[in-house]
Specification:
Distance between the termini: 52 Å
Shape: globular
Radius of gyration: 21 Å
Number of strands: 18
CATH superfamily of the largest domain: Probable tRNA modification gtpase trme, domain 1
Helix content: 10-25%
Order of helices and strands: HEEHEEHEEEHEEHEEEHHHEEEEEE
Structural class: alpha+beta
Strand content: 25-35%
Amino acid sequence: MPDLPELLKTALHSRHLAAGATMTDEAGWDMPLSYRGAIEEVRAVRTRAGVMDVSHLGRLRIRGAGAAELLERLCTADVAHQEDNTARLTLLCSQTGGIIDQCYLLRPEGFWVLLTSPCNRLKVLEHVRSHAGDFDAKVDDQTEKTSMLSVTGPQAPAILDAVLPEKASQTPAGAVRVGSLLIAKYIVMRTGYSGEWGLEAVVPNMAAGMAWDFITKKAGPNAAPPIGMAARDVLRIEAGLPRYGHEINETIDPITAGLEGLVDFSHEFLGREAVMQHRERPAARRRVGLVVGGDVAEQSVIPRQGAVVLRTDGGEAGTVTSGTYSPTLDKVIAMAYVGADAAEAGTELLVQVGAERRQTHVVELPFHRGSARA
């Protein structure tokens, strides 16, 4: 039996172990699954704030005179009109209109950064490099050279204002800035993955431990607890956010995924004609939210990815892509793709969980509206 590849470790790996984290394989990285239990960690973020090590996200730097043209060709966003010091969500599509990845595109002055899904970093790197030869652009992978931290929650602005020299609360959503602290250069951005107010920072690996220790321990009453990957996934499901390998992949187009808002059709991008075709014909299925009936204390009522969604007459309606117990709502929730005729909010359906069929109904996404726009 061949040896499995060794998991990658972030610069904060030893700190996660010291904090008693249960570790897990997250897209080839040895990441903290949980420190104190996902439910407690979700509640900490929803009521106050928490800090996450998200260094497993891909960070690709694109530079050169042709960088903007390259990204305009590959991204569904309107790259040509993206202003300096901003970040925006975008999609990378295949020629057939499938989603290669959902990324944040950062435009600090002088260069660009693509933040990729952890599982897609190498695929996106190869994809961008395969087209870079047609443009005057250089692409390099900064992921293993840097660390990325996220501080998120409704009280995060006040916490950061109390410990940072600049007012984090005055950073508007989608803003990016580059700075230096001593010899360490950093990138700070207002993006996020929880639906709450969030500030992310990319720092050199040598500075990551100091930043982590400060925000989780040394900030006194302004310290924020560490949050693991399990809670992060619950938070993004509550926020109705798609995850690659669950709600999106190369067989799903932006229209079906409900991500048409990330597509600027006024420019030519790879896969545009195929996406236009999906846009012009009625969608056969749609991504929706489901609230599942039954006792939430029973873990068996949680529908997992692949669970079948049924109409009340027993006919198949669709498939679950993500499911969880929501501590914020005290309900079992899921996202699914269902037929267009079953996608209207309020539609009563069934979901197959093990040998049982549970009542469920369609709701509009997101399940929970946090403080992200504050």
